[in-house]
Amino acid sequence: MGVSEMAFGTGASSYSVSLTLSVTDARALWSAAADRALAAPGMTLADVLDTIGPREDPSIADCIAMLTGPAAIAGCAIEAFDIVENDLDLVPGQIIQLASHPVLRAAHA
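Below the sequence we write its predicted structure tokens.
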């Protein structure tokens, strides 16, 4: 179906996107997350340490969230963002969830 054949504004569809990661180098992950965090205006090293922990004992889930957290996507409302730590022994994992904000829609006449 081409763009000209699509019906725009006829309703919302929901999609899920999944990404599975294996952390092979926690220090490299921490460094990348720290660099991303420090690029934010006003962010300090103390803020980074509070957010993702120290390089020697990083919060892996928070580092992954820092690097993979969704940015705004035109025409979409992000409904959920979850990070689940999978354990080989199938023990319930840690879930980090970003708060979702309701989207206000303009009334159409």
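The chain has three helices and two strands.
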